[in-house]
Design a protein that fits this description.
Radius of gyration: 16 Å
CATH architecture: 3-Layer(aba) Sandwich
Helix content: 25-40%
Strand order of the largest sheet: 2-3-1-4
Order of helices and strands: EHEEHEHHEE
Number of helices: 4
Number of domains: 1
CATH superfamily: Putative sugar-binding, N-terminal domain
Structural class: alpha/beta
Shape: globular
CATH topology: Rossmann fold
Number of strands: 6
Strand content: 15-25%
Length: 148
């Protein structure tokens, strides 16, 4: 199994995903902020809890890229960005710019964006509408409401 690295935009989300990983038998360590040194612990996954949900987007990008570099230094190959499932960072938005920066750093042009988790899937499938855009996450896009 590839070692998993999670970058979470807040402590609550980090704790949620760490709990999901452990509940599924994946040894996990959660750290608060990006450590300034390697940690010599043998685990299947690392979760870095940031405070990037409501900070300026430049800081959110910088902190998230710092977390990515640290996770890669710990041997993480599968990277997961855990953003707030209510999709409510700042008015201008941090989620899109962070995703774009991580994708660029990871040299990938495809990713999956899913504002739900398995524990909330039933609630998500009972939604009465779907919001969809066709532009980059980092731009201010108009959103189309699609009835289900």
């Amino acid at each position: 199994m590839k070692k998993i690295g999670v970058i979470a935009d807040d402590f609550t989300g980090a704790t949620d995903i760490a709990g999901f990983l452990v509940a599924n038998g994946i040894t996990t360590v959660q750290v608060n902020g990006v450590p300034d040194h390697d940690l010599k612990v043998q685990v299947d996954s690392w979760v870095v809890s940031l405070k990037s949900r409501s900070c300026p987007k430049e800081q959110a990008v910088r902190d998230s890229l710092s977390a990515l570099k640290w996770l890669q230094g710990q041997g993480c190959e599968q990277i997961y960005f855990k953003y707030c499932s209510t999709f409510d960072s700042t008015e201008k938005g941090n989620i899109g710019p962070v995703i774009d920066a991580l994708m660029q750093e990871l040299e990938t042009d495809q990713t999956v964006v899913c504002p739900a988790s398995l524990s909330t899937a039933e609630q998500s499938t009972k939604a009465t509408c779907l919001y969809m855009t066709s532009c980059s996450m980092s731009r201010g896009c108009e959103t189309t409401l699609l009835p289900q």
